[in-house]
Amino acid sequence: xxxxxxxxxxxxxxxxxxxxxxxxxxxxxxxxxxxxxxxxxxxxxxxxxxxxxxxxxxxxxxxxxxxxxxxxxxxxxxxxxxxxxxxxxxxxxxxxxxxxxxxxxxxxxxxxxxxxxxxxxxxxxxxxxxxxxxxxxxxxxxxxxxxxxxxxxxxxxxxxxxxxxxxxxxxxxxxxxxxxxxxxxxxxxxxxxxxxxxxxxxxxxxxxxxxxxxxxxxxxxxxxxxxxxxxxxxxxxxxxxxxxxxxxxxxxxxxxxxxxxxxxxxxxxxxxxxxxxxxxxxxxxxxxxxxxxxxxxxxxxxxxxxxxxxxxxxxxxxxxxxxxxxxxxxxxxxxxxxxxxxxxxxxxxxxxxxxxxxxxxxxxxxxxxxxxxxxxxxxxxxxxxxxxxxxxxxxxxxxxxxxxxxxxxxxxxxxxxxxxxxxxxxxxxxxxxxxxxxxxxxxxxxxxxxxxxxxxxxxxxxxxxxxxxxxxxxxxxxxxxxxxxxxxxxxxxxxxxxxxxxxxxxxxxxxxxxxxxxxxxxxxxxxxxxxxxxxxxxxxxxxxxxxxxxxxxxxxxxxxxxxxxxxxxxxxxxxxxxxxxxxxxxxxxxxxxxxxxxxxxxxxxxxxxxxxxxxxxxxxxxxxxxxxx
Length: 629
What we know:
This protein is α+β, with helices and mostly antiparallel strands. 57% of the residues lie in helices and 22% in strands. The two termini are 28 Å apart.
């Protein structure tokens, strides 16, 4: 009993909701019907395209409710469009219909506005597709009622109103561009699904807005399909039932974000990349100069390595000989020390030499004086011998005369021989005395010279002896100086050794210097090659890409105006070219998914709740909505 009571209550609530909905529509119509105007106004119209969809989104019923308002000034008014059936929803007046037009008498507009409905099968500008999956398996919508499981609903919305127009814009370089572009008239599509929270849990719809009112969650999607869009709802259902899915489609301008800053930024970026390109070209020019001079650098590196090697070899020789020099210094120091130690004996010896030299000088002087006396005596003796020789020559002459007077006289012969022998002896003595005299004279002169020279020598000996007295002190200074020199050399030798180690390391490091320079030059060439590639394939492509983006943005802005203009110009579903003063919107709904039970007739309920209304008008409105059930 309670279950039946609850079912009756639900039926009553649904009935009341439908009555309230229909009453609202009727009041709206009544309001526009009763709003008259005495002043003649241009005739305009509003098209509301009502579409009943099957569960899969295909069209089941399609009709257009035209609201005409304004008084006009002629006898007739023509609306353009092709309908299979026309119904005046305001009065009993009938239009004249032609193939693609509906002509109404002016009397139909006397009240200021009126409504008429037309049935059509014209293709909609937006196509709706709906698929249902229960526990991962695709099922039809009409089979879902009363089922339980994980329900997935996939909506696909496709914009079919594609156009193509000339898009004119000024590109980055200031050139005028004119391209033909395809585009879609923008339609704002809103899908609304109501989920009873007593029947559904674990509802997932990431792209939707969800609003909970009481025990219902309204799940809404909104989008501009270009050209299509897909929406998904997933939820777990028990005894599944779904109210009709409502879909509203309105031609609407798209609110695009302001791209002026983006365009300005891209332009600055393109200018910056151009500066990069110029800078890269300068770098490439510099690298080319470096590469052209690389031969000198490579030759210089070889010369440098050779020079360092020679320096190292010289320091090696110096370092190798430093020990010999050190040994020589040590021997020199030892000899100087020994000489210093023995210098006292040298001084004493020099003193004795000086004293002996004085005696020698005196003896030489005395010898020179004695030789002078001897020379004087030998000169007299030589003179006497010359006189004797002269007298003896007379004696020889006398003996010769005797022999000549008596050659056979042996006594005369003996006397001549004796006189001649004596003459020869006296002649030899005289010559000897002359030689002796000459030698003594020469010896006396030499002794005189020797005496004079020896005086100078003796003076030098005296000076040498005087200098010898200061020799020990000088030798000490010499030793001390040599010691300092040796200490300095020792430090110098250590420095040479360190220098050798350093130059050896430098030599080792510079041995590969030419090869490294060659690698460096090759590296510069690789950098130049890479930089050139970067310039051509990177910077240039980046610049072209940025400029392309700028031009795409400029073209997009121009296309945006065309797109929004197409939305503004889409005035009529039935004939967009001739129904100029018009507006249009599309209201769609699917059939409900319900567990069917017998219900009272809706017409009777409405009539009971609206006894003062014309049954003919309500019948016209109800006949449209009944098709959705």
